Amino acid sequence: MIGLSVSPRRRSRRTTTGQPDLVAPILAALSLDEGTGMFGFDGDEAGALHWVVDTTSSYADADALVAAKPTAAASGSALALAGTNAGQTDLSGLTSGGWQFHVGVIDAAGNASNVLSTAFTIVSGNLELSGDPLVWNGDQLIFNAA
After folding, report:
1. Number of domains within the chain
2. Which pLDDT value is given to residue 15?
3. Is 10 a member of any domain?
4. CA neighbor of 117 nearest in space, from 136, 128, 104
């Protein structure tokens, strides 16, 4: 009996020269606005954009990032273009503390890009009240934030 070992095959998309595309997308220049959830990055190929918010410091490539999406605090997907990309995520549901935002792209041939990561911190503020929060001044009920 002959044993065969078959490994998973990459999808192969042909380039304009007729050769299979074996080159992974390259990403650079990640930015994140924590206040609005807007993010941006540059990429040299179009493909499927994947983003994750968690506490992991880095990922080997976009395939590893996609595998982490089910356990992430937040995640999503969109279309990435060759060139400058922008997107938005909702960071409002995150608890206070340190977080990492990661993006990666998988091109049409299945090549996984590098992953860009940036750290950010969610700080929840509490209004401290001293004394009675509501006070009647004889004329109206006022909020006492002193």
Report:
1. 1
2. 56
3. no
4. 104
Looking at residue 115, which CATH number applies to its domain? 2.60.40
**Domain range spanning residue 79?**
27-125
At 21-74, the pLDDT tens digits run: 889 999 999 999 888 889 999 999 999 999 999 999 999 999 999 999 999 999
DSSP the chain: ------PPPPP--B-TTSSB--PPP-EEEEEE-TTT-EEEEEESS-EEEEEEEES----SSHHHHHHHGGGSSEEEEEEE-SEEEEEE---TTPPSEEEEEEEEEE-TT-PBPP-EEEEEEE--------S-SEEE-SS-EEE---
Q: What is the pTM of this model?
A: 0.73
In 3D, which of 46, 51, 44 has the Cα closest to residue 27? 44
Q: What is the CA radius of gyration of the chain?
A: 23
In a domain, 132, yes or no: no
